[in-house]
Amino acid sequence: MSISYEFNSVNLDDYIALRSLVNKPPLTTELADQIMKNSICSVSAFDEEGKTVGFGRLVGDGVVICYIQDVMVHPEYRFRNIGKGILEQLEGYVKSITQPGVTMMLELMSTLHAEQFYEKHGYIKRPNNEYGSGFIKLISGDD
Fold first, then answer.
1. How far apart are CA 121 and CA 131, in angstroms?
2. What does DSSP assign to residue 143?
3. Rounded distance, CA 114 to CA 112, Å?
4. Which of 24, 82, 91, 92 has its CB 3.0 to 4.6 Å from that of 19, i.e. a possible disulfide?
5. What tens digit of pLDDT does each residue of 44-97 get?
6. Dihedral (CA of 96, 99, 103, 107) sign
7. 16: part of which helix (H) or strand (E)?
8. Residue pair 106/94 in contact by the 8 Å Cβ criterion
9. Could you write out the DSSP letters of every residue in 59-108?
10. Antiparallel, parallel or unpaired: β 65-73 and 105-108
11. In 3D, which of 96, 129, 125, 120 has the Cα closest to residue 108?
12. Which residues touch 84 (CB under 8 Å, ≥6 apart)?
């Protein structure tokens, strides 16, 4: 099976459908569009027939910090190194924008079932002796 990767060529309907397949909260097309416009870049993975089978994106300042978001692989295509390919594409992009003399911090928040995947690809689990815990605060627009 041949997988191709493309930057910033996301189909919003495919993105919304993929989110649903991996049990992420639903989005409207308008919100999905805003998400893409506010991202540094995105990577879509396609099978031989052009079907979107994976996705990932970067957010952040693009100078000293980038966050990997929305790494998703279609459930029927898992365990075929697509997630690895998405990470490699995103990491390559971060390397290409990292300025001389600057160390970019590339971070992510993992779901529980994906922690080993990220560790296998060189990401450091927190907390550890150098870095504290990551934190999250959910803020509702309904409050």
1. 18
2. -
3. 6
4. 24
5. 999 999 999 999 999 999 999 999 999 999 999 999 999 999 999 999 999 999
6. negative
7. helix 12-21
8. yes
9. EE-SSSEEEEEEEEE-GGGTTSSHHHHHHHHHHHHHHHHPPTT---EEEE
10. parallel
11. 125
12. 121
